[in-house]
Task: structure prediction
Amino acid sequence: MKIAVFGIGYVGLSNAVLLAQHNSVVAVDLSPDRVAQLNARKSPIEDPKLEDWLATKDLDLTATTDSAAAMTGATFVVVATPTDYDPKTDFFDTSSVEAVIRAAVRDAPDATVVIKSTVPVGFITRMRGATGSDNILFCPEFLREGMALHDNLHPSRIVVGAETPDARRFADLLVQGAEAQNIPLLFTGAEEAESIKLFANTYLAMRVAFFNELDSYALSQDMDARQIIEGIGLDPRIGTHYNNPSFGYGGYCLPKDTKQLLANYSDVPQNLMRAVVDANRTRKDFIAGQIAAKNPKVVGIHRLVMKAGSDNFRQSSVQGVIRRIRAAGIDVVIYEPALEDATFMGCSVINDLATFKQRSDVVVANRASEDLDDVAGKVFTRDIFGLS
Result:
């Protein structure tokens, strides 16, 4: 079976590799560099399992920038292109997804289009009406950056927003490629599947925000946040997972998905969804204030990425902290190996770690690192479980 996958990011690439075990997969991307890397069996994103599988596994996988050729003869067209949140419209920018859908309806009318990109509630119904095609369905993705292929091989569940034979056929392909057994399958309406994705990510953001606010309280009262978190986590209804404080929830998904869900509530009474979004802003204000209170002349930011094992720093929470520190008139320098530019957000980028440490009066790290052990006395982090 031929499958076209649009987008060579975390979602698209991990799905392409998963499906290429048993199908002929053509991955499509606008970036010639990404296409060339994938054709050379090199991962354009940082993900150890993806890197290993591309180098060692027998995969029927090619990449191209030619979308029409990729769609020709395809049974499924999988769309995993970016849907950034647009603050002007209060909605995701779904233009890239819409463009692929319209091209697929035109160039591959018999193919089923599977949307993996996160979209607003009602998007699939709207696109079915706009294109006159019912061969469009939503299959949300639940993965972690740096663990994308692993999470597709061991999915917590597979959700498909349709109850058609094609929906079940696609779900079977995902099960076929997975390593896990007895994967929960859920077939729902289109709007229900779209809601599952947004509510799931907003719940995760809410949990992050809760433990961050707990940490803010403990820090302001000179209490041990770890002891408090460990104590409440022993309640099995709460658990000891996903409880490590940070500078705020960030990354590509949680900030935009929470705002999109809030926008979907425009005509529905709510309090909690607004509080989740506002809590993230408050946490960054608090963190920046704690750093400024140390009266540093130069603050060093150690890594922009949200988590270890990731090279993605889109919408990372530390960027909000940087803006606030600079607004207070404090000089900021950045150490980030994933950056090639000499500056970022108006701050100098220092590629030499030793020089970065020497220049920084306070070293700010969203996640702790052994690289900073020799300057532990000037490290500011709220990563209380990271290197214990």
In short: The first helix runs from residue 10 to 19. The chain has a mean pLDDT of 92.
